[in-house]
Write a structure and sequence with these properties.
The chain is mainly β and 652 residues long. Helices cover 2% and strands 50% of the residues. The chain has a domain of 244 residues: Methylamine Dehydrogenase, Chain H, CATH 2.130.10.10.
């Protein structure tokens, strides 16, 4: 029976040219464990338990994220519970019935009763919504939440479950509801939308919607943060942070007029006295206060260097309490201007590996997702070294003794001189520059003979068209060029010896739907920035990724599961073949396949959560393992890939 089954499988392979599932030697795989750890906190809120005790809650990123609770008096950790399948939470809210809610970064909503040790997963809020942003507590135990990618607002009530407040997207063709604020006096809900900014007033009972954002802000990216503070004589105010530009609009909820624009105000959290006489906020790490009925020009600086507030609370004792992104719990007493600060102990969590590189000395470098940071693994000694200082590294490349980094956000570039110590505060790594309107650089190629680095980019939120960039090592000059393919971004790059070969993706920044149908292979002159030639190697493919120089001297790459081979001399595609099924395009695709030509003559790759071997002669694909992404080859031929937070290796 087993023999017949093997014959059937063999026939199936040759009939449909799909993957081979031959037995793989599992002893060739090694788990080197998590590489990067962080104590990055996000969503935070002051709350009370059933006995009236004051608590502070926050969420530390990780896989999974953890909900942490602290006693405000003792500063002791009283809760540390995982949020399953969620890697973080951007907000927390306590409802009127005392329940604490956390929006999981996996589309689920979590509930916790302060003072207990239980966290309950309430499930996915609305079908198709994969990410939750802000929460706002409503009336009678209800809570509202903001979603992605459907640009929707949900309501949850313990007795009634989930419902879609807006009955569909708040704004058509937008993906994000990024911020929420509920106004108890009128029962109205305010929602901030992106990646093209909108400020929507919505009646949660009827679903009726109204746009409030002034026309001059319609080309901004997000209404990123919303807060409501009390005012005198019912002049309560809605504060709305608009990005890009970091402008906070002040909207009078009584007069329904925008009163002023404030620059440089941190809007992760603000607090207003019940008297309506003062608003507290942080700006450039300073604690500030002003009368909301007056111009912000009258604001007073109360304390310097306190950090960025994630949550505020004005206690019954009149003190202003706030938690900063640096995990400092601070109390400020307006009576005598005294300040007390306590550093909360945040348990570090492993964070996902986001990029990999083999350095000249053989160490395997990794970059951390969202929380940032970098780390090295020495295969010879098994030593791990954490290197803090940079934000999220999208990709790295080597030229000589230097390592170059493409860093998110804002499309920044850095270079590290490996001959000196890693000292970010001492300009090593050194900041090289950035380009406005660009966000990420996944595609990079080093050209030693020209002493040149070439980068391909993904644009900012809500934009299409990825720029190209070059860095001349001798001149120490960073140059930028427009996208070589209109309305497409750069997913992969290689150097043919005479020109740069690049593959695009139809995707742009998040929150913007593609306006083209298929990815393009292009040739590009790094000296002039001119596109020399382009073609479509895989009709209908959403992205071209994994470009390498193959064993035949031609360039091999992947387009949505289909192999293509390009002759750089004749400048034409000479071969294509589907190797495996690829999921249909959904929201965006920036990178997919990673390919490596191994000394054993085979090509190894990762794509769509698998590690595989490709025979260059027969084009036969053998799946080696599942749950694998990214790929680099060590100096001894060992292959390194990632599984979430863990670095793994495979010895062919």
């Amino acid at each position: 029976m087993n023999h017949l089954k093997q014959l059937s499988l063999a026939f199936l392979f040759f009939a449909v040219l799909t993957e081979s599932f031959s037995q793989v030697d599992t002893t060739r795989f090694t788990n080197h464990g998590p590489q990067l750890f962080a104590s990055m906190i996000q969503g935070s809120v002051f709350a009370k338990d059933q006995h009236g005790n004051d608590l502070i809650y926050t969420v530390v990123r990780g896989e999974p994220a953890h909900l942490l609770g602290y006693d405000l008096k003792t500063k002791k950790l009283i809760l540390d519970q995982a949020l399953p399948k969620a890697d973080g939470a951007w907000d927390l809210a306590q409802s009127s019935d005392g329940t604490l809610y956390a929006p999981g970064a996996n589309g689920s909503l979590f509930a916790h009763i302060p003072g207990t040790q239980e966290v309950k997963d309430l499930g996915v809020v609305l079908e198709g919504e994969t990410y939750l942003w802000n929460l706002s507590s409503g009336a009678d135990g209800e809570v509202f939440g903001a979603t992605y990618p459907g640009c929707r607002v949900f309501r949850y009530h313990p007795k009634e479950g989930f419902s879609d407040v807006g009955k569909g997207p708040l704004v058509e063709n937008e993906n994000y509801v990024r911020s929420l604020a509920f106004y108890p006096k009128t029962g109205m809900l305010y929602a901030g939308v992106g990646s093209k900014a909108h400020l929507i007033e919505i009646n949660p009972k009827t679903g009726e919607k109204k746009e409030l954002l002034p026309e001059k802000f319609k080309d901004f990216e997000f209404v990123y943060g919303l807060e409501i503070v009390p005012g005198l004589d019912g002049n309560d105010r809605l504060f709305a942070l608009i990005t890009n530009g970091s402008i906070t609009l002040v909207y009078n909820l009584k007069t329904r007029e925008f009163e002023q624009e404030i620059q440089g105000m941190d809007m992760r959290a603000i607090a207003g006295e019940n008297s309506g006489k003062a608003v507290y906020y942080t700006s450039k790490s300073d604690l500030m206060s002003f009368d909301p009925a007056q111009s912000v020009e009258t604001a007073q600086k109360l304390a310097e260097g306190v950090g960025t507030a994630l949550a505020f609370n004005i206690g019954a004792d009149g003190k202003v309490y706030f938690l900063t992104s640096g995990a400092n719990l601070i109390s400020y007493d307006p009576k005598d201007n005294s300040l007390e600060k306590t550093k909360l102990q945040i348990p570090g969590q492993p964070i996902p590996i986001h990029s990999l590189l083999t350095a000249p000395d053989g160490k395997i470098w990794s970059g951390g997702y969202l929380a940032g940071g970098n780390a090295t693994f020495d295969p010879k000694t098994g030593t791990h070294t954490f290197l803090p200082g940079l934000d999220q590294t999208e990709a790295m490349s080597v030229l000589g003794d230097q390592i170059f980094f493409g860093v998110y956000p804002k499309g920044k570039f850095y270079v590290y001189d490996t001959k000196s110590k890693w000292m970010p505060k001492e300009n090593n790594p050194k900041f090289l520059g950035q380009k406005e309107g660009q966000s990420r650089s996944f595609a990079q190629v080093s050209i030693p003979e020209r002493q040149l680095l070439v980068f391909g980019m993904i644009p900012e939120y809500g934009k299409l068209g990825g720029a190209m960039a070059t860095y001349d090592l001798a001149k120490e000059e960073l140059k930028f060029f427009d996208s070589p393919v209109d309305k497409q971004s750069i997913a992969t790059l290689a150097y043919t010896g005479t020109y740069v070969l690049g593959g695009t993706t139809i995707s742009g920044g998040l929150g913007k739907n593609p306006e083209t149908k298929e990815a393009v292979l292009f040739t590009w002159d790094p000296t002039t920035g001119q596109t020399l030639f382009d073609t479509v190697p895989v009709p209908g493919a959403s992205a071209l990724t994994g470009l390498i120089k193959g064993p035949d001297g031609n360039f091999w790459g992947m387009g949505d599961g289909t192999l293509f081979i390009f002759d750089p001399v004749e400048r034409k595609v000479i071969f294509t073949q589907k190797l495996y099924d690829f999921p249909p395009f959904k929201s965006h695709i920036w990178r997919s396949a990673f390919l490596v030509l191994h000394p054993d003559g085979n090509i190894y790759g990762t794509d769509w959560e698998k590690l595989f071997k490709l025979d260059p002669l027969t084009k036969e694909v053998t799946q080696l393992t599942k749950n694998a992404a990214l790929l680099v080859m060590g100096n001894d031929g060992t292959l390194y890939f990632k599984r979430g937070t863990e670095l793994w290796s495979y010895r062919p």
